[in-house]
Amino acid sequence: MTLLAGKNAIVYGGGGRVGSAVAEAFAAEGARVFLAGRTRARLEEVAGRIRAAGGAAETAEVDALDEQAVDAHADAVAAQGGIDVSFNLIAHGDVQGTPLVDMATADYERPVVTAVRTQFLTARAAARHMMPRRSGVILLFGGAGDPVRDFPVGGLQVAFHALEAMRRQLAAELGPHGIRAVTIRTGGIPETLPRDFPGREVIERGITGKTMLGRAATLADVGAVAAFVASDRARTMTASTVNVSCGALTD
Predict the structure, then answer these.
(1) Any idea which fold 8-243 has?
(2) DSSP-assigned beta bridge partners for residue 37
(3) Residue 165 in contact with residue 221, Cβ under 8 Å?
(4) pLDDT 10s digit of each residue in the chain, 251 long?
(5) What distance in Å separates the CA atoms of residue 249 and residue 244, rounded to the nearest whole number?
(6) In what order do the strands lie in the sheet with 8-12?
(7) d(CA 135, CA 127)
């Protein structure tokens, strides 16, 4: 039996690199995937691949920073059999490559504000539907980490630390209702970097060089782990992080 048979899973940012990989892994394990994002064409491309492989996928244009849009979409999904999994993977608008002392205030705070707002809105919307059913999984992506010394990452790490604080609070408040909250940490995925990204080679070497296995996590790795964590086989896992970093992250 597949891991997520009969489950409904929302993937915000489902047209992105990580979001699409997770969505395809969820679908391969039997989930009905609801792809949410701001660009319909990218969502439909992912949905097309899922359907071609025999999976089930629906798409919706949703601004995951818009409270009313998030709530309305969650209500619509819940009306089709409930929400079992919610995973927010939208981009945070972070600016990298600029030292903090040279960075504009807006560029520094954008990923922090974006990450906190969108995760709060989507987690809250899902939890409201999960609570009456006394089950559900809220997944987060990123996780706290050490300061990056060899490349300026702006407010990104601050955003990840803020999300970890939220994950701990979600797990504490929602645990009595049977809802789990888990963060997936990777230490970096070279595949997600555009070919023309400034400092790409430096970042790739930095990611791989810190691992114990001599390689970094791939998008397929992240998707496979996310599907397991979202499944009932991981039903004892909450208030925790899952390390998918090939040994780069040791705490």
Answers:
(1) Rossmann fold (3.40.50)
(2) 61
(3) no
(4) 799 999 999 999 999 999 999 999 999 999 999 999 999 999 999 999 999 999 999 999 999 999 999 999 999 999 999 999 999 999 998 888 888 889 999 999 999 999 999 999 999 999 999 999 999 999 999 876 666 676 778 778 889 999 999 999 999 999 999 999 999 999 889 888 888 877 788 778 888 998 999 999 999 999 999 999 999 999 999 999 999 999 998 87
(5) 8
(6) 56-61, 32-37, 8-12, 85-88, 136-141, 179-185, 240-243
(7) 9
| Phi and psi torsions of 172, nearest 5° | -65, -45
Residues 81/58, Cβ–Cβ less than 8 Å: no
Q: What is the pTM of this model?
A: 0.94
Locate 4 and state its tokens. Answer: 């997520």
DSSP 40-82: HHHHHHHHHHHHHTT-EEEEEE--TT-HHHHHHHHHHHHTTT-
Q: Give one word for 207, left, alpha or beta, with left for phi > 0 and alpha for psi -120 to 50.
A: alpha
| Phi, psi angles (nearest 5°) of residue 65 | -105, 0
Q: How far apart are CA 41 and CA 61, in angstroms?
A: 10
Torsion of CA 132, 8, 22, 171, to 10 degrees: 10
